[in-house]
Amino acid sequence: MEKPLKLLHASLNNRVIVELRGGVQYQGVLDGYDVPHMNLVLKNVDEQIKEKKTKHEKVIVRGDNIIYISP
Amino acid sequence: MEKPLKLLHASLNNRVIVELRGGVQYQGVLDGYDVPHMNLVLKNVDEQIKEKKTKHEKVIVRGDNIIYISP
Amino acid sequence: MEKPLKLLHASLNNRVIVELRGGVQYQGVLDGYDVPHMNLVLKNVDEQIKEKKTKHEKVIVRGDNIIYISP
Amino acid sequence: MEKPLKLLHASLNNRVIVELRGGVQYQGVLDGYDVPHMNLVLKNVDEQIKEKKTKHEKVIVRGDNIIYISP
Amino acid sequence: MEKPLKLLHASLNNRVIVELRGGVQYQGVLDGYDVPHMNLVLKNVDEQIKEKKTKHEKVIVRGDNIIYISP
Amino acid sequence: MEKPLKLLHASLNNRVIVELRGGVQYQGVLDGYDVPHMNLVLKNVDEQIKEKKTKHEKVIVRGDNIIYISP
Amino acid sequence: MEKPLKLLHASLNNRVIVELRGGVQYQGVLDGYDVPHMNLVLKNVDEQIKEKKTKHEKVIVRGDNIIYISP
Known about the structure:
- 7 copies of one chain form a homoheptamer.
- By secondary structure, chain A is mostly beta strands.
- Chain A has a single domain (4-70), classed as SH3 type barrels (Roll), CATH 2.30.30.100.
- Chain A has 1 helix and 5 strands, in the order αβββββ.
- In chain A, strands 4-3-2-1-5 form a 5-stranded antiparallel sheet, with no helix packed on it.
- Chain A is globular, with a radius of gyration of 11 Å.
- Chains in contact: A-B, A-G, B-C, C-D, D-E, E-F, F-G.
- The C-D interface holds C 1-8, 17, 21, 36, 38, 63-64, 66-71 and D 12, 20-22, 24, 26, 31-34, 37, 39-41, 45, 56-62, 64-65.
- Strand 5 (66-70) of chain E pairs antiparallel with strand 4 of chain F.
């Protein structure tokens, strides 16, 4: 059995896909997270909100809105 | 009587269907979960968001958005 | 006076209707529940999401999304 | 001053109207409730979801979705 | 400085307007409330849900859905 | 560094703009607040709900629905 | 590993982009925040709500509605 937070920790420094509510998706390198909120820090980020694409050097993503994280 | 978490535990290593809010569905092997949030780890995942199908090796699914889990 | 959880307990092994947010309805035999979340285990389940009907052997339904349970 | 829970208690065995989010309304005899969730047990229930009317012998209504209770 | 709960208390036995999410409005005499949920008891109530107007002798309004109370 | 609650406190007796979910906006003098809910008391209030404008002598605004407060 | 709150703290006095639910975006200098709510104080703020642009000297943004903060 692999606990969700253990897999999240093992994903540090790797590129992950994060899907949020409302059609928002990030792809970036997982640079940090906190417990128990599962807020994330991503770097080198490609953001897609519906059709609109943006790049960010870093983002802090609030855990509340996360649907899934794909390592 | 079968408690929800006992059934979830018994579903480890089996393929499950997970329905989330917003028309998102996953089918994958249940690899882990945590308590009390019911966050899940799925592997070999078929994702369907409305009409769009995607495959993921692994996903961490936040428990908040889960409507049901079908073992 | 009949407490909600006492009625839920009395409904074990009986067929119940469960209405969730978003136009999702289950009919199935109540096989278990937990407290205080009111997550449910249903078996021999008829699911109806708007017009689409599906059968499941078992489902774990998260209590958060439940509108009502009709024993 | 009349506290909400005192009025709820005084409404036991009387017919009440319960309005939920999403255009769902129940009319039935208040058979029980719990604290602090304000989950309700109603009996001899007339349900109206938008235009659709249904009768239930009993329902457990989750307090989360209640907008108002009219004794 | 006037604390919200102090103003609510001072409004007992006066007619107040209560605006809820989803276009629901009540006008009625504030008969009680509880802390910290801010559930209310109103009497001699005029309810307006979008265009539909209804009268209630008393209602218990759940605090969760309240946007504002105007004494 | 200026803490949010310190700025809120410093805004007492000044006119503020409060934006709520659902296209509701208030402009009024901040007369009070509570912690940690950030419920507000406003006086001499101009309310705008989409196109509809109303005046209130006082309102209690629940903190839950607040998006931002602009002193 | 960089914790979300550490990155937030390091962003004090820098211009950040804050995206909220409902198509609301702020760009402003981060002047303060609190823990654990992640309420923010921004100054010299450019607000964009869908197509409508407004300037504010200062705003208090509730953490609940934040999707991401981009330093």
